[in-house]
Amino acid sequence: MPSYAKKPAEIDIMRECGKRLRAVTDQLIPSITSGQTALSIDAHATTLLREAGIEGSFKTVDGYRWNTCIAINEQAVHTIPSSRILKPGDVVTVDIGGLYQGYHTDWATTIIVDHVADPRKEAFLAAGKKALEETIAILRVGAPLSIVGQTMERCIHGAGYQVLRDLTGHGIGKNLHEDPYIPNFVSHKKGKEYLIEPDFVAAIEIIYSESTTDIIQKNPDKWSLDTADGSLAACFEHTVHITPNGVDIFT
Predict the structure, then answer these.
(1) Three-class HEC string of the chain
(2) Res 237 pLDDT > 80
(3) Global confidence as pTM
(4) Domains in the chain, please, with CATH?
């Protein structure tokens, strides 16, 4: 089993990258209101990234030319920003990565546009937030990486929702997406399991829907994804560093 641990100098850069990326998101998310398009949100994110002194990670992915993925309602993460206009009560996922001195961090959240009160949508998003929080809380050196999928699945299924099984968390560092890939469900693939090392850094994310495990590509581009049954989708993500003393959340 290869080592995925990061060196101290790499960790310092990634910590700073995460700090700057979170400063971007702290400004971006409150600015999202009805009447905007996903493209206008991406343009604002581009300005904020530049002001923070970091590049957008997603443009390093071959063939992708936006700094964010913006998914609305039935759309899942990886969806390109479009001219679709946001309406009050829409469920919007913003996924964004930062690149600083050659290293990446990755972050995502899902919100209800204009904070429209909706018990169904609020419960749906609360389940994802809880799944991410509980998963990060149990990460520890020496634990099998499968505890991520076990915890995510328990939280999401327990709340009555479904994990989108084709989308996962991942290692991160010099590349936005690195090994090991981290399923959000209990995987039964055989093989030697990775035990979390000190200084392992990963993008931990829960990607789920109201009622399906499957995604489809309706749009002609190779990126945009929808839930197979048209139900709501959401994502919550942090880049984290696992140490012998606990978890350091970079974003």
Answers:
(1) CCCCECCHHHHHHHHHHHHHHHHHHHHHHHHCCCCCEHHHHHHHHHHHHHHHCCEEHHHHCCCCCCCEEEEECCEECCCCCCCCECCCCCEEEEEEEEEECCEEEEEEEEEEHHHCCCHHHHHHHHHHHHHHHHHHHHCCCCCECCHHHHHHHHHHHHCCCEECCCCCEEECCCCCCEEEEECCCCCCCCCCCCECCCCEEEEEEEEEECCCCCEECCCCCCCCEEECCCCCEEEEEEEEEEECCEEEECC
(2) yes
(3) 0.96
(4) 8-249 (3.90.230.10)
